[in-house]
């Protein structure tokens, strides 16, 4: 049971979060960014496992990498059109690095990132932040994947002091596992946020309270995902800088596991709410279709729109004029 002070603290936090949110309709390619992020954050093995499996999986991974790269290059299309979002990823990454400073808290950096991304949707915010984390995370893991077999990667690992991290030390292995678990949880929550924002809301007739609760939970989840990403980035930076001692590493690992637990709890709760929304929308669409087929229509546009374009993302076009049918 939450105390009154906890509710008061959460109300203040929500108020501060919402003050930063001033969306103006600008878009980022959330699906493209998330595909890249997931490839970096969720397909990583512990270095000791990589060494054992490297030769066995080489041909398979090369084949998968070729397919992935081909798909990404096709999706990126015009590089100029993607320029703004790559710049934002760099800005967020730079902002997150400030959390490594001793005089700035994770909360302060989180609020600063929220202000930086204030004009974006909640899905846009979290996917850009995850992309910034993947940028930091990927640099770290690229060396981890290659230092056993590539001289250049080994030299970089030695210069950065990373060889000790990628060894068999149990403390470092626990830290790496907690980092991976948290990253996977954040990707799962991001998928829910993107999916929720894509729902055809015209079919949502739930009471305003249910919708408001879902939105509030997403906003809180976004806050904690940004804060968790900042903690991950800060710890990776500290690890590379060799500023984490044995006792501190245990505390850092515990922090990541705690954040992973919180993110997983948020994911489970949001998933249940999202499933309820999907079920509700499906029932409403089925009910509307039954009534539509009982009515007399001048043409079939209303029926087709209900069947194929519930959000009108793909407008119906006249086959001869190629004009949108109103």
Automatic annotation (TrEMBL):
GO terms for biological process: phloem development. InterPro entries: SEO_N, SEOA. Residues 9-297 form the Sieve element occlusion N-terminal domain. This is Sieve element occlusion N-terminal domain-containing protein. It comes from Dendrobium catenatum.
